[in-house]
Write a structure and sequence with these properties.
The complex is a heterodimer of chains A (305) and B (299). Chain A is mainly α and 305 residues long. Chain A is built from twelve helices and no strands. Chain A has one domain: MetI-like fold. In chain B, helix 4 packs antiparallel against helix 10 and helix 11 runs antiparallel to helix 12. Classes of the chains: A mainly alpha (305), B mainly alpha (299).
Chain lengths: 305, 299
């Protein structure tokens, strides 16, 4: 047997998966179909009307209205932006931040309670199984089925986008920050629960088994073993989701909650596109601030672990 | 040797009694949540719908268990409602798939350029001055510029990109697709570059040691090891793209959000729930698919 035949043999015997290949093929074909099916009007984007629109947008609409007479100067631009920021931007940005914080704290609190219910290692006749034979022992509660139901519940929570939740809740609760907070909290509870349950399932079982063998029952096991072990990981997810909450809280304002999105929508309706761009820029700055805060907190948690 | 072994055995973390650091952090976060509610001047009373809202809420949530199978408003609509649900779902997925196919290509390229492993090479092995120029000047410059570009793309939400394009171009489906693709490119590129940089460089190093060029070492040493995680993340992003494209419907694009909004504003709650259940089932299917793929990757 020479070297080349060995390589050919290795190539033949490499692990293959029909599912992976089939999925890749289906996805690639569908992506191609999506691009060429005509459902998306690519050529329309480059027709004369659109380009005319774009030219007008850049040259007149997006040009700061207040500076039409004096001409564009850095000082004037900063003065105009600063005035709007002081008048509306600062308070809206602060509200956006508070909405995101309230939402993620609620989501985190609820998820801390619900996530263990979806972890199949705890929701088991014999938590963190000592002996796989006992797995078949009859239990009073159908633990596995219960946890599967809870898992489906997690998916239901996150399947509907925040924006749709907020739209629906706004009609019921009336205009306050609650619809935005609840919408963000519902969606993120679903995601945090799922991540938390996965983390619990992937825990190193040895310490928990030791507790079990010392006679610890399910709840003490949960509070004394599982939660302290997953806390830092859970906090990582908490801050990671908070980042997206800041992004979404900005946007949810467009439905009528006074966050940055409210003023973006307001400027859009009044066709003050210069203001709209400014508020979008403020939103981007806020998101960056949130990203950096979250990055710092996560680095701190990783170090403290 | 023996002394270090002795040390490690005795180094038990000293813990003072009382609340640990974790408990303090959790307490502070909870307090921050309360401060947020106070700053927004919210009370639990706001959670109870007003009289009008209560009627809407009761109607709406009771409709959840009896989604419509045909149009509720009969006036002047022909065609099957179920077919309309399916075609709205189809358009939603088409938008998401088109956006993802753009984002995946651009995100992969930008992700490579933003990663440190792409630019990594052993300076000692570099002979020509041209190579050295690439390594020490062009590399950091392009990498830095790419990272700034990625941050810019990510920091503006896809809906806001869509609004900007709406203002700049008018209603056009291609601009909606690009609006989703831009922030998704940034997110894919960021995560791809992090995954590549976290990959164990050993296989790339050994390929380099037997004479592979840096590019080959990257493509055949680093990339295959990061590929499972990258694919899993891309698939998760596809799911997110479906949700984003659904929402774009609220701004007049022909995805499922448009139908939801229309039915809700006509007070046809059972229709709304048909759309919502359809969206939920779609997401469940994606979830099952991606779980199956992930199992295959891990094995």
């Amino acid at each position: 047997m020479n070297a080349s035949s060995t390589i050919a043999q290795l190539h033949r015997e490499r692990p293959k998966s029909q599912l992976l290949r089939g999925s890749a093929l289906v996805l690639a074909l569908f992506a191609l179909w999506a691009l060429v099916s005509g459902e998306i009007a690519w050529l329309d984007l480059f027709c004369a009307d659109r380009l005319e629109n774009l030219k007008r947008f850049i040259a007149t609409d997006a040009y700061p209205h207040a500076l039409k007479e004096d001409g564009l100067s850095l000082g004037g631009l900063l003065g105009w932006a600063g005035a709007i920021f002081e008048e509306r931007g600062a308070s809206a940005a602060l509200r956006t931040l508070w909405i995101s914080i309230a939402a993620i704290v609620i989501a985190g609190g609820v998820a801390a309670v619900l996530a263990p219910l979806g972890a199949r290692t705890i929701m088991n006749c014999d938590p963190f199984v000592i002996d796989s034979a006992t797995d078949r022992r009859r239990c009073f509660l159908p633990w596995t089925q219960l946890s599967s139901c809870v898992r489906i519940g997690f998916i239901l929570l996150r399947a509907i986008p925040e924006y749709i939740w907020a739209f629906l809740l706004l009609a019921m609760l009336g205009p306050s920050a609650w619809p935005a907070i609840l919408a963000l909290a519902i969606h993120n509870t679903g995601i945090l629960c799922r991540l938390g349950a996965d983390t619990i399932e992937n825990l190193d079982k040895r310490a928990l088994l030791a507790l079990r063998m010392l006679g610890s029952r399910r709840l003490p096991l949960l509070f004394g073993g599982v939660l302290p072990m997953v806390l830092s990981r859970f906090l990582l997810y908490f801050f990671y989701r908070w980042e997206t909450c800041v992004r979404e809280a900005t946007v949810l304002g467009m439905l009528g909650v006074v966050s940055l999105g409210y003023w973006i929508q307001d400027a859009r309706v009044r066709q003050h596109y210069d203001e709209m761009l400014l508020f979008v820029g403020m939103g981007a700055a806020l998101v960056l601030l949130g990203d950096m805060l979250s990055l710092g907190m996560r680095a701190w948690i990783r170090r403290a672990r | 040797m023996t002394s270090t072994a002795w040390k490690t055995r005795v180094a038990v973390p000293a813990r003072r009694p009382g609340p640990g650091r974790g408990a303090i952090v959790v307490g502070l976060l909870a307090a921050l949540g309360l401060v947020a509610l106070w700053a927004l001047e919210l009370s639990p009373a706001g959670l109870v719908p007003l009289a009008g809202g209560r009627a809407i809420a009761a109607d709406f949530f009771s409709a959840a268990w009896q989604p419509a199978t045909e149009y509720e408003g009969t006036a002047g609509i022909d065609g099957s409602f179920l077919l309309e649900i399916l075609s709205a779902l189809y358009r939603t997925v088409i938008f998401a798939a088109a956006a993802m196919s753009l984002a995946l290509v651009a995100g992969t390229v930008l992700g490579f350029l933003a990663s440190s492993t792409w630019w990594a090479g052993d300076p000692a092995l570099l002979g020509s001055p041209l190579r050295r120029f690439f390594q020490s000047w062009l590399g950091p410059l392009v990498q830095g510029a790419t990272r700034i570009l990625i941050v810019g793309q990510r920091s503006v939400h896809e809906l806001l990109w869509a609004l900007l394009f709406l203002a700049a171009f008018g209603l056009n489906t291609a601009s909606a697709v690009v609006a989703i693709a831009i922030p998704f490119t940034g997110m894919l590129a960021k995560v791809f570059s992090e995954l590549l940089d976290e990959t164990d460089p050993e296989s790339a190093h050994s390929l380099r040691a037997v004479g592979a060029s840096p590019i080959k070492a990257f493509l055949f040493g680093t990339l295959p090891r990061a590929l499972p995680d990258m694919s899993a993340y891309a698939f998760y992003r596809l799911e997110c793209a479906v949700r984003s494209s659904a929402i774009l419907g609220f701004f007049g694009y022909p995805t499922i959000g448009y139908s939801i909004r229309l039915s809700f504003e006509n007070l046809h709650y059972r229709e709304v729930w048909s759309y919502l259940w359809a969206l939920i089932i779609l997401v469940l299917c994606f979830e099952a698919w991606s779980a199956a793929l992930r199992r295959r990757f891990v094995a």
